[in-house]
From TrEMBL, chains A, B:
SMART domains: HTH_GNTR, UTRA. It comes from the Bacteria. Gene3D superfamilies: Chorismate lyase-like, Winged helix-like DNA-binding domain superfamily/Winged helix DNA-binding domain. This is Trehalose operon repressor. Residues 2-70 form the HTH gntR-type domain. It comes from Ornithinibacillus caprae. Pfam families: GntR, UTRA. GO terms for molecular function: DNA binding; DNA-binding transcription factor activity. One of its GO terms (biological process) is negative regulation of DNA-templated transcription.
Amino acid sequence: MQKKYLTIYDDLVKKIKGKEIPVNTMLPSENELTVQYETSRETIRKALNLLSQNGYIQKIRGKGSIVIDVHKFSFPVSGIVSYKELSKQLHLSSKTIVQELGFIKEDEEIGKELDTTLEHVWKVIRTREISGEKIILDKDYFNNQQVPILTKDICENSIYEYIEGQLGLTIGFAQKEIVVEEPTEEDRRYLDLEGFSNIVVIKNHVYLEDTSLFQYTESRHRPDKFRFIDFARRIQG
Amino acid sequence: MQKKYLTIYDDLVKKIKGKEIPVNTMLPSENELTVQYETSRETIRKALNLLSQNGYIQKIRGKGSIVIDVHKFSFPVSGIVSYKELSKQLHLSSKTIVQELGFIKEDEEIGKELDTTLEHVWKVIRTREISGEKIILDKDYFNNQQVPILTKDICENSIYEYIEGQLGLTIGFAQKEIVVEEPTEEDRRYLDLEGFSNIVVIKNHVYLEDTSLFQYTESRHRPDKFRFIDFARRIQG
DNA sequence: GAGTGGTCTAGACCACATC
DNA sequence: ATGTGGTCTAGACCACTCT
C-alpha cells in the first residue's frame, strides 16, 4: 500500500502537468479535497505542502492554493537528491566515456574525508559528450565497503541506478558547492576547452541515512554550457 | 503568542549551536520531547522536520534523530529566501556603493516581465566592495507600485530590511538561476575585473505571496570570489 | 458571516531497530 | 518485547479574505 499523501500528490501533479488543472487557477479547497480523496485534512495538507515545496502551487491564507508555472523552466542541475532524478538529467542526449576506473592512490586527499578504516576508495573519471563536444568532466569517489563491485559497463550507464537499484542504499542528504576554478591539466586533457580560461566546479558530498559520508563527486563544466536553477520557498512563519 | 513549533525549533537550534546538544549525539525521542515541551507529538514533529530541512539533524526511523554538522560550513549564498537572511549575508564586511538609481528606460526588456500596467520600474545599480576591491555588481529592478519611494540612503543600507520592515511586503517564493557570462562594458566599468574573462551571474526572480513578480535581481560576481553552497535532503518516501 | 488555510491536540496503527 | 520515527484520523480553534 502506497502512502496516501504520496498518491494524492502524484495524482495532483499528473493533473497539473496534464493541464487538467491549469496554471493560475485555484485548486479545490482542502476541505473539498478531503471529500474527493476520502481522507483527513492533515493528509491532504501533507500532499499540498509537497506540491508547494516542489514549486507546483502557492498557498495563500484565506484564499486557497493557486497553480504556478515555475516548472515551465527546465531544471538541468537543480536541488535534486534522488539518484534517479540525477541520472535522468545527466543522460539527456549525452554520451558517457569512462576515462579512468580504479582505486585512488594513497596520496590523494579525498581518502581522508571518506571513511578512514577502508583500504580502497573507488575513483571514476568520466566525460560527458553533448553534440560531439566533451563538455563535462565527472570525478566520482566511492567508499568500496558499500560499493564492492564497479565495472566499466556500469559506469557507462548509470552508477546511480546501480547503487539505488542493485545495492539498495538509501541517501540521506547531500551538500553541494559551486565554485569557479582555473582549468587543471586534467581538464585540458579530457575536455574540449577551446579558449576558456575558467571552469565551473560542482562539488557534491553525499551522505547515507546513517550520516556517514558515502560519496564525493566533482562535476566540472565548461562555463558556456553551465546552468543551475534553484527554486526556493520563503522561510516558514 | 509565537507559534509553538517555532519556539521549540528555535530552542533546539540554540541548544545545538551552543553545543548543549553536541554533534553526533541523539536528540531526545519525540515522545520525550512531548513531555519536555508539554505539547502534542505532531507539534514536536513539525519542529523536528524544520530542523531536518535546515540541515541540523538527520532523522533515522527506528533509532532517533542525530545532530549533524553540515552547518559548520558557512552559507554565503544559500537557498534562502528571507530578505533578512539575504541582507545579513550580503552585508558581511562589505561596503556598498550606489552607482545608479532611477527608473528604467522604455527599451529595457525587464519592463515586460514585471507588471505591464505600470509606468515606472525602479532600477538600482550597486557595487559591493570587499577589502578594497569591487567584487560584486548588483542590478535590482522593483515594481514601483509596491515600492513607491527609494532613496540613495536606503540603497546604501539594506533595501531588503526596508521592504520587509517599512513596507511590510511578504515574499512568496523565488527562483534563482546561475550562469557564467562574458563581462559586459558595464561590468568592466564598475568592477575591478583585472584579467578575468568570465563573470558569474545570479539571476533572481522574486514573487509575492499572491504570485505576482515583484522584483528581478542580477548579482554579477567576479569568478574568483564566488561561492555557492546548497544543502539538499532526499526526496520524501 | 462563510470559507479559506495555519496551528494544535490526543489518540491510533504501522515499519523498523535493538536487545 | 520495547522503543523509535512515519502515517493517519477526527476534531478543534485561530487568522485571514471576501462579500
